[in-house]
Amino acid sequence: MTRVHDMGGRYGDGRVVPEPEDQVFHEDWHKRALAVTLAAGAHGAWNIDVSRHARERLAPMDYARFSYYEKWMAALADLLVETGLVTADEMAGANPTMSPRAATTLTAEAVPAVLAKGGPATRASDMAPAFAPGDVVLTRHLAENTLVDGGHTRLPRYAAGARGCILRYHGTHVLPDSSAHGLGDAAEPLYAVVFPASELWAHPENPADEVVLDLWQSYLVAG
Amino acid sequence: MPHDHPDHPHSLLPPDPALRIKALETILTRKGLVDPAALDAIIDTYENRIGPRNGAHVVARAWRDPAFKAALLEDATAVVSDLGYYGRQGEHMVAVENTDKVHNIVVCTLCSCYPWPLLGIPPGWYKSDAYRARVVREPRAVLSDFGVTLPPDVAVRVWDSTAEVRYLVIPQRPPGTDGMDEAALMDLVTRDSMIGTGLAVAP
Q1: Residue B114: beta bridge partners?
Q2: Residue B196: left if φ>0, alpha if ψ -120 to 50, beta else—which one?
Q3: In angstroms, rounded to a whole number, what is the distance separating the alpha carbons of residues B165 and B94?
Q4: Domains of chain A, with CATH numbers?
Q5: Domains in chain B and their CATH numbers?
Q6: Residues A120-163: pLDDT tens digits?
Q7: ipTM
Q8: What are the coiled-coil residue ranges (chain A) (predicted)?
Q9: Which residues of chain A lie closer than 8 angstroms to B17, CB-CB?
């Protein structure tokens, strides 16, 4: 089974509500939640896959009722305690003590350079590309992490067991299924794979429509 | 509110979100793990410095310069980097072009992946359950929420951003824009047109 965040194709949601381009944040606390999350992440105590998984493993009821930045905050609080940056007592209100990790705290002067530097996901890999554009492939029939029970994966349930075609080769990228669980980067060839809408949905809106997903080599077999 | 999992550390914080982030910020500041001035700098970056005008600049240039557009479609990361638009959440860029035959739309069904250096922080609707759930299955119905109707002979291609590759849609250049300069063309390029939920504005 997958988790509550894996909602692509789900029925029952209402209309999408457009909003003006100049509305970057809706509440002042949203800004702080974004900034605190980015600044705390700069210590390098976790990577992007670990932090995504921390949001995904919130209890389903919490995931559904929390607004976007509430999910970020909850996952951040969980990660801070799990990695030992903050103790549970401190989180509950005990007097905080200075951290030995304060030396790696992001300064205002370093912010532009850190944001501009980013964090590329490409890594060298000893796994050679098995597919080329035009090849027909089949995705795993279970959208699950094969390394860790209940672990992080980036194959959505709606695209499991589906037949598609390699559209583009992206190079070798960190495998989130491994990286989210401290198992190393395990970089693999990554491909854009195109699926006819009729392969994914019983009632596609238009037979010519398609969905493209970026999928790692170990998610695919020759189709 | 009840918590099904009281062992989750986040349940130790105050329930009100504004108070919760205040408490987190205070704890982290007193531990020396965040610098409040750095928080202000991050907010200033995404509120005032990095936003969809960056993407509009790229699109307007692509409309005017066929060689630039060809290079953008071939290797968007290199091309946008040359314009100074490389950075966090834009490390691996791909540009996809709308034509008379194909209309591209970008989503992240699993979270909210989005090309920050070119478009800034994603709008609320991009992060909403409704968009994430619906746009892969019924993109034309979602487009109608934005007031957009496509001819039936235009195929929709939805890009679900499941890896660290980020997608920028190059909308179709509106008719009647020959001879317009880059700045004037930029005004026609909306954020939504670069996600694919809108079209470029006619002059």
Answers
A1: none
A2: left
A3: 7
A4: 28-117 (1.10.472.20), 136-222 (2.30.30.50)
A5: 15-48 (no CATH), 50-195 (3.90.330.10)
A6: 999 999 999 999 999 999 999 999 999 999 999 999 999 999 99
A7: 0.97
A8: none
A9: 29, 33, 67, 69-70, 73
> B50: Cβ–Cβ under 8 A, 6 or more apart, which residues?
A115, B87, B116, B117, B120
CA distance B192 to B178: 23
Environment class of residue B44 by beta-carbon count within 10 Å: exposed (0-12), middle (13-18) or buried (19+)?
Answer: middle
Is residue A12 within 8 A of residue A64, CB to CB? The reply is: no
Taking an 8 Å cut-off on Cβ atoms, the answer to whether B9 and A80 are in contact is: yes
In tens digits, chain A (223 residues) has pLDDT values of: 679 999 999 999 999 999 999 999 999 999 999 999 999 999 999 999 999 999 999 999 999 999 999 999 999 999 999 999 999 999 999 999 999 999 999 999 999 999 999 999 999 999 999 999 999 999 999 999 999 999 999 999 999 999 999 999 999 999 999 999 999 999 999 999 999 999 999 999 999 999 999 999 999 999 8
Report CB contact under 8 Å: A8, B160.
yes
Query: Cβ of A210 under 8 Å from any chain B Cβ?
Result: yes
Q: Give rounded-to-5 percent helix, strand, coil for chain B.
A: 45, 10, 45
Which amino acid belongs to residue A9? G
